[in-house]
């Protein structure tokens, strides 16, 4: 049976867990996250039919999406 995922609300401020994403993201994004891993949830993204990603907006106005498990609230 599938487990329910608790989604973070749009507008919430969150932090990317850099250690969990360093192997799958471009080097320039990794460097930005090392400096400031905080962003605001601006949208959701269906990833593979079984999971929902979070689209984050960073302080410089850029956006990128991450799996829910790669995000820490608060």
Topology:
Elements: E1 13-16, H1 18-21, H2 27-35, E2 38-46, E3 52-57, E4 63-67, E5 71-73
Antiparallel strand pairs: 1-2, 1-5, 2-3, 3-4
What's the short story on this structure?
The protein is of the alpha+beta class and 74 residues long.
List keywords for this structure.
74 residues; alpha+beta; SH3 type barrels; 5-stranded antiparallel β-sheet; 2 helices; 5 strands
Order of strands, widest sheet? 4-3-2-1-5
The CATH topology, please? SH3 type barrels
> What is the name of the CATH class?
Mainly Beta
Please mark out the parts with pLDDT under 50 across 5 or more consecutive residues, or reply none: none
Whole-number count of domains:
1
Beta-strand fraction estimate: 35-45%
Measured as a percent range, the helix fraction is: 10-25%
- Please summarize the sheet with the most strands: 5 strands, antiparallel
């Amino acid at each position: 049976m599938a487990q329910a995922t608790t989604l973070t609300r749009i507008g919430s401020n969150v932090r990317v867990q850099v250690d969990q994403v360093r192997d799958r993201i471009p080097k320039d994004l990794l460097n930005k996250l090392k400096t400031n891993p905080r962003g605001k949830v601006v949208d959701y993204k269906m990833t593979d039919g079984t999971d929902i990603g979070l689209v984050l907006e960073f302080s410089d106005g850029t956006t990128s999406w991450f799996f829910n498990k790669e995000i820490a609230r608060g």
